[in-house]
Amino acid sequence: MEPDAQRISERIERPSLSDIVCSRLEQMILSREIQPGKRINESKLSKVLGVSRAPIREACRQLEKLWMVEVIPRRGTFVREIEAEEVEDLYDLRAILDEYAGRKAASKIRKKDLSLLREHLSDMESATSQNDPGNYFRANLAFHQTIFDIAGNKSLPMIYEGITKRAALFRKSSLSIPGRLAVSLQQHKEIFEALSARDAAKTAELMKGHVMNAKQAIINSLDQP
Amino acid sequence: MEPDAQRISERIERPSLSDIVCSRLEQMILSREIQPGKRINESKLSKVLGVSRAPIREACRQLEKLWMVEVIPRRGTFVREIEAEEVEDLYDLRAILDEYAGRKAASKIRKKDLSLLREHLSDMESATSQNDPGNYFRANLAFHQTIFDIAGNKSLPMIYEGITKRAALFRKSSLSIPGRLAVSLQQHKEIFEALSARDAAKTAELMKGHVMNAKQAIINSLDQP
DNA sequence: AAAAAATAAACTGTCGACAGTCAGCTATCG
DNA sequence: CGATAGCTGACTGTCGACAGTTTATTTTTT
């Protein structure tokens, strides 16, 4: 019997073909194997991957949900392009969402939440000392998502995922800028402190500042590439 | 020749079968012909509508993008349920997005923007005097979307659409509460004034207050139904 | 009679095929 | 020589069918 029919989504399940194609496509897009603006050729790709067109189409729709591609009726599926200007927009949105999440999380946080955050923080710490942007990025994402969980706004994670995936299309991440990891780490430590102190205003301010800081770092790095 | 290959999305095009199925489905969901939590039976629906399953699936994926349904692998597509608690979450998100948009729009607004807003305002005015929530809703949406346009954050409208469609699943809208139309109209007039004065702080505050006010109205109406 | 197992029915995932549409090329016309 | 119209190849939209799962039903077991 189903103990909780509402929460069916979270069960173990092997991925369907569409899911496999989806991650494969995401990978191809992020690695620029398929370049921005280019069309995803369904029939060609289906031959390459050895599957029919149905899972390919399914995967494209999934990626559209994440704003990574744009499906144009009767024309095809195109990898989205992203301009510096739009990256700034996305960072602005991240800033206000993080600010909100920080404020809400600070007033709700519990001991076990703090220990989970501390784990992510230590992951970020070791990634920083090994100068490993990839792992830092993951731990960083986990840190922020944990704060969302604590904040408890159920709709926030979905929105945020779209924003981050879309921003990932941009060739440059703030974390790939030399010296950024250390700065970012320090900011997360401060956020952690503010959360421990249950200081909502301070947490909100730090979260916002953190994102706006990353935004500025990107803008600066573009001016002098 | 294509004058602007980037902006292909906006061209005249007759709807595909999937599009028709999609709006039909949306309608069925909002009218509760298919109830929240229920599965959308692809094969059954394909017989009813006289099309194959492919357009049906396509439409479901489209609705998933708008958070109106949840697609669970190998189980089917389910109409999303929405609790009062989540409606509050959605209003919170609308509040911070509107606040942000208001601040940004106030610093960028031009004369022709103001006249467009004035038009929407007068639409809302006549809808109010005729006590027509449907038309009021549309004019209201147009008003807010115009502010987004002025703010110029390209990603904002997409996010906002998801939030509003999702909130529409809830049986009650703040605008359906007796007396709300007049209150809402007054608030929009104040927002318009603040925008005219290019007062960013004031506009932001009013926008946020307006949404939070609507949220509170819903909460109150639920306590005493 | 309640729980578990086995069976049957229904449904989704995937496939290959065909038709209508679109992009690019060639030939025609001014 | 440039622009337009018609043609051609390629691709997406849609279809019906089949296979593997999931759900509902029936049978068996305790």
Task: Characterize the structure shown.
The structure is a homodimer of 225-residue chains. Chain A has 225 residues and is mostly helical. The first copy, chain A, has 2 domains: 16-79, Orthogonal Bundle (Arc Repressor Mutant, subunit A); 84-223, Four Helix Bundle (Hemerythrin (Met), subunit A) (Up-down Bundle), CATH 1.20.120. Chain A is built from 9 helices and 3 strands. A 3-stranded antiparallel beta sheet of chain A has the order 1-3-2, covered by helices on one side. In chain A, strand 2 (69-72) and strand 3 (76-79) form a beta hairpin. Chain A is globular, with a radius of gyration of 19 Å. Chain A starts with 16 loop residues before the first helix and ends with a helix. Mean pLDDT of chain A is 91; it is low at 1-11. Chains A and B meet through helix 3, helix 4 and helix 7 of A and helix 3, helix 4 and helix 7 of B. The structure holds a DNA duplex (30 and 30 nucleotides).
